[in-house]
Amino acid sequence: MNIVVCIKAVSQQIDSPRISNGGSGLAIEGKSWVMNESDEHALEQALRIKRNQRATITALTVGPITAQEVLYRALAKGADAAIRIDGDEFDPNITALKLACALRKLKYDLIFTGVESFDGMSSQVSLSMAAQLNIPFAYAVTRVAEVRSCAIVVDRELGGGRQQTLEITMPALLAVQPGNDPLSYPPAAKLVQVRRRPLPCWTLTDLGLAASDVMSNCKMKWIRIEARKSSGRIQWFSGDAANIADAILSKVRDSL
Amino acid sequence: MNAEILVLAEQDGGELDPATADLISWGEALAKAKQCRLTALLLGHRVDGAIKTLSDLGVARIFVGDDPQLANYNLTLYRHLTGELLREYAPRVVFATHSYIGIEMASCIGAQCGATVVTNCHSIEKAEQGFLIRRAMFGGKFLATVEVSGEEPLVVTLSSESKAPKTSSNCKTEVIRLSCPAGHRGPIKVLATTKPERVEDISKADLVVAVGRGIRDPSQIDVFRQLAQELGGVIAASRPLVDAGWFTSDHQVGLSGVTVRPKVYLAFGISGSAQHLAGMNQAKQIIAVNSDPDAPIFGVAHCGAVADMFEVVPYLLAKAKSV
């Protein structure tokens, strides 16, 4: 079985994102790039399948050279191959287009992604990719219950506490919601060892795309981006813990 | 029929999902600005209650699929029906809630009508050409404004953080029934849909004491539980504590769990992921205590304190007991 896992490098320490290229992009500088949380859970689901049957896992990411870190981590955790697709656009439509083109060059029975990236928060890349590849998908998958010869049985959330069990014909795409399954931690030696492996980097030419294809998929123009501090209407309680407790209690009593 | 606005109504057990009412308000505001008609699509089984609510909200036309096969969400059937509908009818803007079902359907409809899809939106307004949309990014710490051209149809999913404009409409509602094909098969088969029995229904409480990742050890939960009891409310938690097995899922507030709208929501050590905010931002009085002044929870809170919750809570409990 061939499994492709799409992962994204995100930083939780973004200071000031800026609009670049006259509104067509977003330039961000961040520290300590890590694998996006739900993408890491998606990788774990793939690794769990690989523990029980023959499977080859390829990790894919779209990003600049700094994004390589997450591919090394995926290799150290047990992925068999990793490919970086070059790009620094901050647009789910373009990311989905690039990933779909890359996937057409790869063999896959299952594609795993996370439900949402910490930074973009659009939840769009996975489902847009599935639409472009014309394959069935499920969003908010929490568990792979069974892998059959040409179908997979999964549990997914519907929101509001509702759950659904689906049987999906492969090839299929699963967008994974972090659940209660623990993450694995790769040994330090392995993390060092995988760095010796050269990571292929695919450019637009490798994907069979022209710059104009990317431009025509750029549907959003960035106008403004601003930090959302506390809501303007917020009333702050200060002082020591006792003062704060008093203020909270009196507010509670007034509101009930 | 052109230039219309379509709202994807969500229902649960035949009653309209409260978040859909906000979509209707956004839809109506835009329908007024563009001088066009507001239409809703409602799929489910025994949905007369939801039809009535949509009609009361002033929706001009409702396409209804009412069939036992639609009782639970079924992507294959839902997609078949939207495909049939979009062959006859070309909306310019489609609204869905930023829920798991809304996210899936928005993507399907976007592909079916070649639309631009923009998700997780806080607001949308008509611009000179196209639309101006605000959406949260970077864990909710930033708000971005983007412009889409409006040349293509637009599909948007609205976050529950969107503050719907107040609108009023009193037109007569036209209801058009859609027929659901029997034995329609696709690559996705629904084997089971379950809704867990709620042991405790936190959605009805007037006061909710909610704890989050700031709790580092399950032994620290008890004092917050006592506080909830003293104040006559219920204890609730954010997702990580439920995933860790410290709480049962009927205590989980958020998109995957329970949506609450209490009079008072006390949040301790909850940073406020978009997932969580979606389940509580309609509370009337939100009071948050967190050690991180930049925590997104302060973006929705009415009152806040940047403090160590473990220092504050003993005082709160003692004072609550003394009254």
CATH architecture of the largest domain in chain B: 3-Layer(aba) Sandwich
Strand count of chain B: 17
**How would a textbook summarize the main sheet of chain A?**
9 strands, mixed
Q: How many strands in all of chain A?
A: 15
Describe the structure.
The complex is a heterodimer of chains A (256) and B (323). Chain A has helices at 37-52, 68-77, 92-104, 125-133, 188-193, 204-207, 211-216, 241-255; strands spanning 2-6, 9-14, 18-20, 25-27, 30-35, 56-62, 81-85, 110-114, 137-147, 151-159, 162-169, 172-176, 201-202, 220-227, 235-236. Chain A is an alpha/beta fold. Chain A has a 9-stranded mixed beta sheet, with helices on both faces. A two-stranded antiparallel sheet of chain A has the order 2-5. A two-stranded antiparallel sheet of chain A has the order 3-4. In chain A, helix 3 packs across helix 4. The longest helix of chain A has 16 residues, at 37-52. Helices cover 27% and strands 29% of the residues of chain B. In chain B, strand 2 (11-12) and strand 3 form a beta hairpin. In chain B, helix 3 crosses helix 4 and helix 5 packs parallel to helix 8 (309-322). The chains are: A alpha/beta (256), B alpha/beta (323). At the A-B interface, helix 4, strand 9, strand 10, strand 11 and strand 14 of A face helix 4, strand 7, strand 8, strand 9 and strand 12 of B.
Secondary structure layout plus pairing:
The complex is a heterodimer of chains A (256) and B (323).
Chain A: E1 2-6, E2 9-14, E3 18-20, E4 25-27, E5 30-35, H1 37-52, E6 56-62, H2 68-77, E7 81-85, H3 92-104, E8 110-114, H4 125-133, E9 137-147, E10 151-159, E11 162-169, E12 172-176, H5 188-193, E13 201-202, H6 204-207, H7 211-216, E14 220-227, E15 235-236, H8 241-255
Helix pairs in contact in A: 3-4
Chain B: E1 4-9, E2 11-12, E3 15-16, H1 18-34, E4 38-44, H2 48-56, E5 61-66, H3 75-88, E6 91-97, H4 100-112, E7 116-126, E8 131-137, E9 142-148, E10 154-158, E11 174-177, E12 188-194, E13 207-211, H5 221-230, E14 234-237, H6 239-243, E15 264-268, H7 274-277, E16 285-290, E17 303-306, H8 309-322
Helix pairs in contact in B: 3-4, 5-8
